Amino acid sequence: MFIQKTLKNEIICHGTGLHSGRKICMTMRPAETSSGITFRRVDLPNGSEIKATSLNVSDTTLATTLGTNGTRVATVEHLLSAFFGLGICNAHIEIDSFEIPIMDGSALPFMELIECAGIEAQDRPKNCLVITRPISVSDGDGEAMLLPSSRFEITYTIDFPHPVIGRQSYHMVFGRERYAAEISQARTFGFLKEVEVLQAKGLALGGSLKNAIVLDDEKVINKEGLRCSDEFVKHKILDAVGDLSLLGMPIIGHFVAYKSGHRLNNLLLRSLLMDESRYQVIDHIDELEGLRGEMDRLSKAVRYEERVFQY
Ligand SMILES: [Zn+2]
Questions:
Q1: 51-59 CB contacts, 8 Å cutoff, 24+ apart
Q2: What Rg, from alpha-carbon coordinates, does the chain have?
């Protein structure tokens, strides 16, 4: 059985807003079973509560933004990624800004704070969504798909025409330890030219070498360099884990992405939810056994698709 989890204690977190450059205070609290991850803006007198779901994604430019009834909260993906990585599905977050603090540009500071506060298992099972038929979405040369698999796997490929990045591909079978060790510390990245354009527009005012990898035309300009040579593709996986967590339940399936981003990740979830023939929701691992025959039959199709796309 998959058990729901929440925080054991309240966490108060201070950080900088990537876009506003302002100091932000965020409080994360334990939440009831089946309440999901919810946000409330305490800087707005009548700010509505925003539930973290794929259908509440209101903008995917530069980051994933959630919005309902005119209230929004931006750059949620790194925090949601940390929650998912630690198996937390219920938490309430109060924040005095429109954006989640950027911290060091990765999910590691959130992971450390949550682990300090502790994680509490709740007495209710958690549903999982099993992919039973492949589904894919594309945009230009970007593509994102979910294929049947007996576990949650991720294969991500990026391709940037930059000497330090180039083509990077990474595959992982998702697990808490692997996420913590390999993915959580990968920082967001940006190009110096683009940062200058954003700052001229009043965006990325809090961006600095303390919260992002910044590249000029040839190299990484952060003095400390990279945390690992494939930090770029690992950060894209970190983002995707946060974006896919907006489904509200873990996926049992293989997420394959080529040059994907927040927009395609969200489009994939919306397309999936519109087609019930591609998934089944289960609340007990034993139910997965009943689906194995069907999944074996589908595996040939999956192998075919994997060959076609050559990830
Ligand atoms: Zn990111």
A1: 52/76, 52/80, 52/245, 52/246, 52/248, 53/246, 53/247, 53/248, 54/246, 54/247, 54/248, 54/266, 54/269, 54/270, 54/273, 55/270, 55/273, 56/246, 57/246, 57/266
A2: 19
Structural domains of the chain ordered from first start? 3-125 (3.30.230.20), 128-187+227-309 (3.30.1700.10)
Q: How far apart are CA 66 and CA 166, in angstroms?
A: 31
- Hey, what are 43's tokens? 């800087």
Q: Which of 19, 78, 262, 284 is catalytic?
A: 262
> For 251-299, how does the pLDDT look when each residue is reduced to its tens digit (9 = 90+)?
999 999 999 999 999 999 999 999 999 999 998 766 766 666 666 566 5
Distance 78 CA to ligand 1 centre (A): 6
Instruction: Report whether 132 contacts 280 (CB < 8 A).
Output: yes
DSSP 189-204: EEEHHHHHHHHHTT-S
Look up residue 17 and give its two tokens.
Answer: 């807003």
229 is written with which tokens? 């040579």
Q: How far apart are CA 97 and CA 120, in angstroms?
A: 27
- The CA 139 to ligand 1 mean position distance, Å, reads 19
Task: Tell me the C-alpha distance between 292 and 149, whole Å.
Answer: 9
Annotation says 262 is catalytic = yes
pLDDT in tens, 99-143: 999 999 999 999 999 999 999 999 899 999 999 999 999 999 999
pTM for the structure as a whole: 0.93
CA dihedral 289, 170, 54, 273 (to 10 degrees): -40
**How confident is the model over 222-232, as a mean pLDDT?**
97
Cα 76 to ligand 1 centre (Å):
9
